[in-house]
Amino acid sequence: MVYGEEIDSGHARLHELGYKQELKRDLSVLSNFAFSFSVVSVLTGLNTLMGTGLNFGGPVSYVYGWLIAGAFTLFVGMSMAEICSSYPTSGGLYYWSAKLAGPSWAPFASWITGWFNIVGQWAVTTSVDYSLAQLVQVIILLSTGGLNGGGYQASKYVVIALHAVILLLHALLNSLPISWLSFIGQLAAAWNVLGVFLLMILIPMVATERASAKFVFTNFNTDNEDGINNKLYIFVLGLLMSQYTLTGYDASAHMTEETKDADKNGPKGIVSAIGISILAGWAYILGITFAVTDIPHLLDKNNDSGGYAIAQIFYDVFKSRYGSGVGGIVCLSVIAVAVFFCGMSSLTSNSRMAYAFSRDGAMPYSSFWHKVNKHEVPLNAVWTSAFIAFCMALTSLGSLVAFQAMTSIATIGLYIAYALPILFRVTLARKSFTPGPFNLGSYGIVVGWVAVFWVALISVLFSLPVAYPITDQTLNYTPVAVGGLVILVVSSWIFSARHWFKGPITNIGNSSEEA
Fold first, then answer.
1. Helical residues (DSSP H) of 427-463, grouped into ranges
2. Residues 149 and 374: beta-carbon distance below 8 Å
3. Which positions carry the signal peptide feature in this UniProt record (predicted)?
4. Which of 223, 293, 307, 314 has the fewest CB atoms within 10 Å of its CB?
5. Number of C-beta neighbours around residue 395 at 10 A
6. Are 326 and 332 in contact (CB under 8 A)?
7. Measured between alpha carbons, how far is residue 425 from residues 86, 435, 443, 446 in Å?
8. Distance between CA 228 and CA 234 in Å, rounded?
9. Helix (H/G/I), strand (E/B), else coil: 318
């Protein structure tokens, strides 16, 4: 079907790639950017992991670590954007791998990239919505008097129930037509930008005691209780806070079949989401760090917030000036809304990836996942992805260690999926790749290799022990979780999928059929 009198460049390119236009192409470049920017959401990652940054290195690790992670993430994003411009489909990464790996490797490359991508996305949705449930629990705790004032501290069962309600709301929102989601996505982007600038100015301004510039730019906290004393090691662990935040920008690629002129606007969405997130995130880090004066107090499990660092910062700032922490609770609510939008956009991206992967027959019961409703929304993919995210969070009832290991796939799994098509681009398709309107020219190969190097490096760094001595409760289970996923994906390929999965398949009978 064709919307309007003219077929835009993204629609025409989708037809050339062999796919009918089944989703409504209604998103502008601003809307496409908004989805990725909302998934990256600096207010989500930086605030939920502020305690990690403070514990491992403090100001130095996240003030400079953010810039380092941001710069290398931009290399990854630019390489992805160049490929996206050539292949603007909702399948994104796994489709790119198939096209770039060549005919003989296409099915396997597509299979492994696709499963790392979709499992990583499910883990992101799980992690974001569970983080929101925990934040809501902290808001309730502080609103009822705090840990030291007899406040209500929710059990893990209440937290998982909150998680379920949040997922339900996100599934309902994602059932709306794309025009509605476009508006909500733009609202989410505006909320993130305004929230960042509001909090980075308000918090240090209200604080009665502020850190010096020397503290903000030079203080390196080595006083952790995890048995780690090497400064480089500490800095590396602190860096992970930044890298966890800078994920999810592949959402722009997964929304390309609903984006006007997607071969131009999809890549712009990816790069602009990363670039603006880097700038907004660094400004936010600096503003909030000027309100940090006592790191051990913020990390103390016996403080009013139960050791939730950013909540304690906000609470203390307002309580010290006004005798009440209510203003801090309101500020936490600003963050909570941003996290809510992040989870919503993450589920949107999930559902589009599941829709495309099932269109090519890679998902169990693919015909079920691939169905779209009268509003051209992949409704089954939305609700099933929400259900899977809920099931993944149930591991938290048994062990938070197991839950954290499982959600670590959110970062490593996604970045492996990001790196695979880039690797194929700079190796197997080095001479055969045909760039789209957005391209890096002669720098494409260099940028691609830098991106692959960075992903390989952070994959190792994320797998390092985070506490000594190493026990079953302190072991970093990330390599176990990621290794388990590798075994499952590869073994399923060897014993089953290689016999029937042929990679992306077109749904146009012949080249003259109207998409």
1. 444-461
2. no
3. none
4. 223
5. 17
6. no
7. 12, 11, 13, 11
8. 7
9. helix
